[in-house]
Amino acid sequence: MFTMNKSLLAVGILMLxxxxxxxxxxxxxxxxxxxxxxxxxxxxxxxxxxxxxxVANMHALKYDPSLEETFRKFTSCDSLQNGVNHRFNNFGxxxxxxxxxxxxxxxxxxRGTWPAYQELAHPLHTSFFGCEITSPCIQTRIDxxxxxxxxxxFDYLEMFGPAATLVESDFKxxxxxxxxxxxxxxxxxxxxxxxxxxxxxxxxxxxIIMRKKENVAGKVNSIFMCLLVIVLVV
Length: 234
Prior knowledge:
By secondary structure, the chain is α+β, with helices and mostly antiparallel strands. It has a domain of 147 residues: CATH 3.40.33. The protein is built from 5 helices and 7 strands. Strands 1, 2, 3, 4 and 7 form a 5-stranded mixed beta sheet that branches. The longest helix is centred in the last third of the chain and has 31 residues. The radius of gyration is 23 Å and the shape is globular. This is SCP domain-containing protein.
């Protein structure tokens, strides 16, 4: 009986340790190959959006794995927030809705087929990135009437960049592709401007690298301690 109790205790400790070691907010992030069809769909939607609402500066959008560094700074649903170079999908505010409606009104455009502003429609975004998360995040979303609605992000969350805010001047009214400082691509979407490439000397990147190393070291220590406890118990 005593041996059985020790065995059950060991199993319990092992399960607890496994939970502790695996309880990360992000399960995995999708790579470019997995997101090819998603990217094509988004490009098509942005083209249609630009045509329907006469947005002259709609930029081409691509899947950007470099956003993973920023994404992994967030460790829980409560920590999610828009930042200086990114905005999370479905994190719209009342001000975003007002800005969107103001653009439509000032340019004599009807509401059309898009009932509400979505991050995908931000003309200055040039990239997006998505990760699968461990548990659903419950967030509030602003509907077309400016009212807060509770909704659930099930198991996949997307970040768009590099626009940090949304103001009416972000939308340039006119024929799609007619107001692109860097020219247009084959879809009449604006080409993105040159970006500053982060190096390992960049403070933000150094912080991300160090945090990843610390997380790995912490997991190894946790596993070692769990095994040690099990050996002592058994």
